[in-house]
Amino acid sequence: MQHGLPIVIAHRGASGERPEHTLAAYTLAIEQGADFIEPDLVPTRDGVLVARHENRIDDTTDVARHPEFAARRATRTIDGVEMTGWFTEDFTLAELKTLRARERLPQLRPANAAYDGRFEIPTLAEIIALAKANNVGIYPETKHPSYFASIGLPLEEKLVAQLSEAGWSDASAPVFIQSFEVANLKRLKAMTGIRLIQLVASEGGPADDAAPSYAAMLTAAGLDDIATYAYGLGPQKELLERDGADTGLVAAAHAAGLKVHPWTFRAENVFLPPADRSGSDPHATGRMADEMARLLSYGIDGFFTDFPLQGAKARDAAR
C-alpha cells in the first residue's frame, strides 16, 4: 500500500480472472498489487462467517450436483425478494467445505470457468490469515444484516470478535467494514473503532428502511448524517459521473468529511459507459483504464475493481 494514494480494493478478489470469493482469487489480487481484498460475509448454520457474494449459493458453487443436499433447496424472502435455491444458513461449515466454487458469470468470463470445481468456500478466518501473511488489508461487507439478525444469526458480533482477535479494533487497522444498510453500521460504530463505509446504489434504498432512498442519503443533509457514523461513502460508480462529466458527488462527500470508494470497475463492455466500450460485443474488453482515469481525476480515495492489476496501473499512472 502506497501512503497517500487511492487504495485499490480487489472486488471479491481478482474476480475478473478467477472464480470470486476464493483464496485463489484473493491470492492473485495480492500478487497483482491490491491494497485490500474484499470478502462479502454470510453465516453458516453453525454461525461461521464465510465469503460468498450472496447466501444463495446456486450460482457460485456446485451444490446442485450434490444429491445429499437436494432436500435443502428452499424458498426464502430476503430484503423483500423471494428466491428459491440453496442458502448458506442451512449448511454447517463442514458441509459447505464439501462444495466447490464455480464461476458466477461463465458466459461473460469463460476462462474463469476452467477453474470450476477446484476451490473451497473460504472462511473469514482463512481470509484474515492470508491478508496478514501478505501485509494487505481486508474490506468485508456485511450482507443482508437485517435478514440474518431476524433468523438468529447476526453478523456484527462475530465479525468484530474475529477482527479483534486479529489485533484489529481501531481506525489504524487495515480494515474497512461496509454495508448497504444503516442500522448495523451504527451498531458497529458502538462496538469497534474500525472504519465504516456506507454503501449506496444508484437506485433503491437501504433494506432496513433507515432512509427513504439512497438518493435522499446523498443530499448535503444526508451526507452529513452519514458522516456521524461512517468514515466514508461507497457509491455505485455511475453516481459519480453523467455523460462523462463529474456530478460533484465526490466533492460533496469530501465536504461532509467522508472518503469516497466507488464500485465496481470491470473490463467488459457490458459494465462500461458507452463511450468506453470497444465494439458492439457486450462481452468484449473495453477501455476500463479510461473510466478509471476519469474517476481518479474527480478525487476518489480508492476504488473497487474485479481487475486489480489494471487498477493498480491506473492508480499509479494518475499520480
From TrEMBL:
Organism: Sphingomonas japonica
Domain called GP-PDE: residue spans: 6-315
TM spans (from-to): none
Keyword Glycoprotein in annotation: no
Alphabetized SUPFAM superfamilies for the sequence: PLC-like phosphodiesterases
Keyword Ligase found: no
Enzyme class: hydrolase
Name by which UniProt lists this protein: glycerophosphodiester phosphodiesterase
Family per similarity comment: Belongs to the glycerophosphoryl diester phosphodiesterase family.
Domain of life where this protein originates: Bacteria
Substrates-to-products reaction catalysed: a sn-glycero-3-phosphodiester + H2O = an alcohol + sn-glycerol 3-phosphate + H(+)
